[in-house]
Amino acid sequence: MEQAVDRRRLSAAQELAQRAGVDALLVTPGPDLTYLTGYRAIALERLTCLVLPATGDPVLVAPGLEVAAASASPLGQLGISIRGWAETDDPYGIVGELSGGAGVVALSDSMAAGAVLRLRDAMPAARQQLAGPILRELRMIKSAAEVEHLRQAGRAIDRVHEQVPELLWPGRTEREVGDDIAEAIIEAGHVTVDFVIVASGPNGASPHHELSDRRLEIGDTVVVDIGGTMPSGYCSDSTRTYAIGYAPDDFLAFYGVLQDAQRLAVESVRPDVTAESVDAVARSMIAEAGYGDRFIHRTGHGIGLETHEDPYIVEGNVELLRQGMVFSVEPGIYVSGQYGARIEDIVVVTETGVDSLNNTTHDLVVVDPAFSS
Amino acid sequence: MEQAVDRRRLSAAQELAQRAGVDALLVTPGPDLTYLTGYRAIALERLTCLVLPATGDPVLVAPGLEVAAASASPLGQLGISIRGWAETDDPYGIVGELSGGAGVVALSDSMAAGAVLRLRDAMPAARQQLAGPILRELRMIKSAAEVEHLRQAGRAIDRVHEQVPELLWPGRTEREVGDDIAEAIIEAGHVTVDFVIVASGPNGASPHHELSDRRLEIGDTVVVDIGGTMPSGYCSDSTRTYAIGYAPDDFLAFYGVLQDAQRLAVESVRPDVTAESVDAVARSMIAEAGYGDRFIHRTGHGIGLETHEDPYIVEGNVELLRQGMVFSVEPGIYVSGQYGARIEDIVVVTETGVDSLNNTTHDLVVVDPAFSS
């Protein structure tokens, strides 16, 4: 079943390339290659590159010592021929030859500059553009199987959030908590830990604060934003806000606003509304409560084989939501020098509305320090 | 102390850029940015880019919501000014302005094509080349502090290899073993698991085989090649070969050859010999024993903030080894359809010779299945 889907992905990409006037897609290891072929190669300095012409047969160019691994991957069952290269060959020249005088090539957005510029020099007549605008049309709409992978990822990170209260007690550093969370992310079934944000007290005012040696104190609020990648290759991402012992009264006031804004934004998700309209729901509610200048980022991002991908839920994005799109809804409010709060769920657009892939409580979780210390 | 070192790194990079005729280095999140500034940003779709002109002051261009995290990182203490951009700004245009009509810009090798091509379009008069040839001169020679970070990484992965025999028993799949190893890598002090190769029986003949559902059997040999990244940002990488119950006689014959080849190659490392000479020591010994066509990859790769970086220990690399270079010495022998073996240590070039950062036994570790089953 998976293989049948994959075959169709290759021909759909070729059709979109033709329509965009692109002669060949050049795809190095990363989410595009995984999506198109199921091959999850380690991205190393030796060039691996799928040459997918707009018409004709794809070829994978790979280092000789990766040929066995590539053949054993799902790619091997798609009938894609593999061209191995030896340690003394020029793999960029080989890609150039296989692209046969292409005038326009589209490169996977994640391709490293090391490959981009060597391909530019090996194919001086080819205009390089990005493959993202072509492949987003495919990757943005998740199949039922992909939604199921993302649902499992959501369940796994929910299990981690359920354990977080046990890890928060006064005197521990953010880093100590973060290390325990990283282990829990793996234990919950992820294969990699992609990020662990534990932002306590005033650190919560920086949306992407990482781990510091600040020790947790009674009265702290703590923003915990965590995610990893599952064996399927699909990612999780969820944020909850906690308090140790109690939270200040002024914090509680805006936390209630945030909770309502996040819920109403999720409830506004359905096919044929714009991405920016979902942002506007959260933003206008927060602004009306007087915190408009403290919600300093967009409302969300798509998620799939990458943690951040299309569609972005941001002002100016008039793209219409469609069934199968999966993205975060994560408004936040940040008070510099004091604290911050964010609530984030991953949601999927269904035929008629929305379904949430994260389902732990949205209430502020107040940890009793007497239990944990 | 660390900060003083970092300051010198920036000015050394500027000097090398001038000498190379480069007007500005453009460095996005990744090992080059970490090396130059200590800032380990998450690489996201929003542009973060250090503009380091050949003469003059560096500026970090960063998304508004990352400014606090960047300031709080070591970068903030280097006096680098930070130019935040809002969700509706064009960050590529800002980098172009700050590069002030540069004719030649050098891009970090890890920069994603998404940024490379948008910078190309934002700065049409600037010729793009790679920063690698400039920065390698700095990154390749490790300071005493960097060697100490790598030594700690070596000790951590050694502790994992010491636990591997307990995880190998007949009936377990490679994937089950690999999952346990991934947890042990984190428990040993790494912050990320970078790769876990468990290649049993015939899978051992593929140097980069990943985890499969093949079940271990008595009489299997198992190549285990593992690594992660430490809190310091420095990487570990070590390979050992195990046998379950016993190993076939013909395997034992070539394993002895491999062990000698690896040892003699390590012993040949010292300042002022070429990188390729170390490869030649291992290769000629293996060839003399009749396995020359079964050693199908180079002997080693540099390691530091990346698992694979300069210098490469490969035929044709006449670069002279210098004190402070750190790289792997990892010959292997692969018999298609049957088995493979590899022994890998990370070594550092000292003033007069070599020091190994991995120190678990090089003997074939034969696991007693009666103990583990």
Main attributes of the structure:
Creatine Amidinohydrolase, 6-stranded mixed beta sheet, 35% helix, 22% strand, 4-stranded mixed beta sheet, disordered N terminus, Creatine Amidinohydrolase, Chain A, domain 1, 373 residues, 2 domains, homodimer, alpha/beta, 17 strands
Q: What would you note in describing this structure?
A:
Chain A has 373 residues and is of the alpha/beta class. Chain A folds into 2 domains: 2-139, Creatine Amidinohydrolase, Chain A, domain 1 (3-Layer(aba) Sandwich); 144-367, Alpha-Beta Complex (Creatine Amidinohydrolase), CATH 3.90.230.10. Chain A has helices at 2-19, 31-37, 67-72, 91-98, 113-122, 132-139, 144-167, 174-187, 249-267, 275-288, 369-372, and strands at residues 24-27, 49-53, 59-63, 81-85, 104-107, 127-130, 192-200, 221-229, 238-244, 300-302, 309-313, 326-329, 332-335, 339-342, 345-349, 354-356, 365-367. In chain A, strands 4-3-2-1-5-6 form a 6-stranded mixed β-sheet. In chain A, strands 7-8-9-17 form a 4-stranded mixed β-sheet. In chain A, helix 4 (91-98) packs across helix 5 (113-122). The longest helix of chain A is centred in the middle third of the chain and has 24 residues, at 144-167. The radius of gyration of chain A is 23 Å and the shape is elongated. The termini of chain A are far apart. Chains A and B meet through helix 3, helix 5, strand 6, helix 8 and strand 7 of A and helix 3, helix 5, strand 6, helix 8 and strand 7 of B.
